[in-house]
Amino acid sequence: MTDQVEHTTDGGFEADVVNAERPVLVDFWADWCEPCKTVMPVLAKLVDEYAGKFILAKVDTEKEQELAAHFGIKSLPTMKLIVNGQIVAERSGALPEGEIREFIKPFITSESDKIMLAAMTAHEENRFADALELMNQALAKDPSNSDLKINIARVIFTQDDKVGSLALLDSLSDDDKNKPDAVKLRAEIKMSDQLENTPDLDQIEQRLVDNPNDCEALLHKSHHLSANGDHELAMDCLIKIILVDRQFEDDAGHKGLLAMFDMLGGESTSVQKYRRKLFTLLH
Questions:
Q1: Which residue among 36, 79, 187, 217 is the active-site one?
Q2: Is 237 a catalytic residue?
Q3: pLDDT tens-digit map of 4-26
Q4: Number of domains in the chain
Q5: 217 and which of 50, 91, 102, 207 could share a cystine (Cβ 3.0–4.6 Å)?
Q6: Which range marks the domain in which residue 19 is found?
Q7: Dihedral sign, CA of 50, 42, 89, 58?
Q8: Is 36 one of the annotated active-site residues of the chain?
């Protein structure tokens, strides 16, 4: 089957869509619908870009009224994603390209995705050489896949190759550099660098016994706590720095909190809690 079915009908729907071996994006449209005409070139572009990973099937709701009624189409355009004969997701309206990508992405598995999954399995089994070989194969098949590069950068970082990991992150486009996983990994690498230049925790604790408001010791303690996974305690140290001396090392307490927010991700309950604390403190 081709990657694009210009006009699927009630009679051909089973062959074109239900029995398809690949995911099918069904676009319900009509000639009088201007938003439909806005979406069409975007869908055509994605079909070409994904090169066979999904099929686009169009349903003219004026000609296929029974088919539109069967699927309960109430507004146009409406897109339904069908995998193995089942509707797995649907959207209505003239969505921008980015939202359509996010809509179809979870249901499309490329050859590079399969190789990367095998690579991650090899890495979890401590077969690093095999994992690296598989990752390179995946990247060769899909060199523009930013998510793939971010995953590879994370695996390389776990092997203490910070330079290689940062090089991959730096190779991303400006938009991809701002993806949450990329921002989080860069923050983790920065935290790791900070810990390398930090005194032993015992020394830091003794300094804090002598002076509980020692901002440098509080900053170093936050690095240790963060590395040990005690993120809220680490953020408490940074909050205290702000309270004691907002100007310490060019606002290190505030900057340290923002770096931890990046590392933990915006959905973290700890981040939400300490964002509120920071807002109250600053205002």
A1: 36
A2: no
A3: 778 999 999 999 999 998 899 99
A4: 3
A5: 207
A6: 4-107
A7: negative
A8: yes
